[in-house]
Design a protein that fits this description.
Blueprint (H helix, E strand, L loop, with lengths): L1 E9 L2 E8 L11 H10 L13 H9 L4 H12 L2 E4 L1 H5 L4 H11 L3 E7 L2 E6 L3 H11 E11 L2 E8 L13 E4 L4 H5 L1
Antiparallel strand pairs: 1-2, 1-8, 2-7, 3-5, 4-5, 6-7
Helix pairs in contact: 1-3, 1-6
């Protein structure tokens, strides 16, 4: 729905160009949670349009991120957490009561499951409340929007800890279906 291009990083401030690339893209891009999604998305292995460093250098910046634990938690809130389960539990997931028992055991609701590298897992649901609470804490003030043209805006925001931006490089560009969680759910 959008293309995000990192335009400028200045200590704890980030400016991105948000271009609407799909007719269904909403114009609600100024929420704190939308800004936090940019930080999270750039920490995942994307189908980059542009990556101004080698993929190995970018992966190294994620592996050695000064706020790696925080970034991991934020991504789990945003996309769900992968919990590895044993083969017997996995085989029972088609039974409604067994699924509920696994949710009770792991204390997470889920609706996706699969196998990765021979290991069985469940994928927890998005944690909307905790993600938006984190956005309210991490993103200082409301992001500002400046129109570039009818299809693009500059979105600028500040974070409370510049280390959260350590993995982001000017010139990064990727497409996303991110949306304003705050506007959609609340």
């Amino acid at each position: 729905m959008y293309n995000i291009r990192i335009k400028e990083i200045d200590k704890n401030s980030l400016t991105t160009e948000v271009t609407y690339i799909h007719p269904d893209a909403g114009k609600e891009i100024g929420s704190k949670d939308f800004a936090l999604q940019i930080i999270c998305n750039t920490s995942r292995d994307l189908n980059w349009r542009e990556l101004p460093v080698s993929k190995e250098e970018w992966k190294n910046s994620i592996d050695n991120h000064p706020e790696k634990e925080k970034i991991t938690t934020l991504n789990e809130y945003l996309s769900g957490k992968k919990i590895f389960i044993d083969e017997e539990e996995y085989a029972s997931l088609s039974d409604h009561e067994s699924k509920r028992n696994i949710e009770r055991k792991y204390q997470h609701r889920f609706d996706n499951w699969g196998i990765e590298n021979g290991q069985h897992y469940i994928q927890t649901k998005m944690n909307v409340a905790d993600f938006t609470d984190e956005a309210d804490t991490i993103i200082i003030d409301q992001p500002t929007i400046v129109s570039v043209n009818k299809d693009s805006n500059l979105l600028t925001f500040q974070v409370n800890d510049e280390n959260l931006l350590a993995h982001i490089k000017e010139g990064m560009s990727y497409d996303t279906a991110s949306f304003s969680i705050q506007d959609y759910y609340f």
